[in-house]
Design brief:
5 helices; mainly alpha; single chain; elongated
Length: 129
Amino acid sequence: MKTFIAALLVITLPFLGKAQSPKPSWPEMKRFHQYMSTTFHPAEEGNLAPLKAKADSLYIHALLWEQSTIPPGFKPEETKKALTKLSAQCASIQQAVTAGKDDATLTKLITEAHDIFHHIVGECRKVED
């Protein structure tokens, strides 16, 4: 029985510290995600009305996210570059909506912004040891 407990500790101990350390909170990312999800997913289905209604807010929250402090769980340089790219993309969306661009153009622009968003939340994270 002692051997079993010792083996169990050897296997689980390395993971205990990770389970106890919370992921860094990034409220600006969460707020941006709310706008991204409520504009991109309807656009996937051909409904561009939410994007047209929220393009200004999407852009504003991209800027707020870009200007926020990058938490320790992200690669700072790569994340900053990607956030700058995301803000520029959201500016393009906002300008395209204001200019009355066609749905195909808006769909392409929001899809590109969505891809950048996923790059940030996925590829820009630091790999934990």
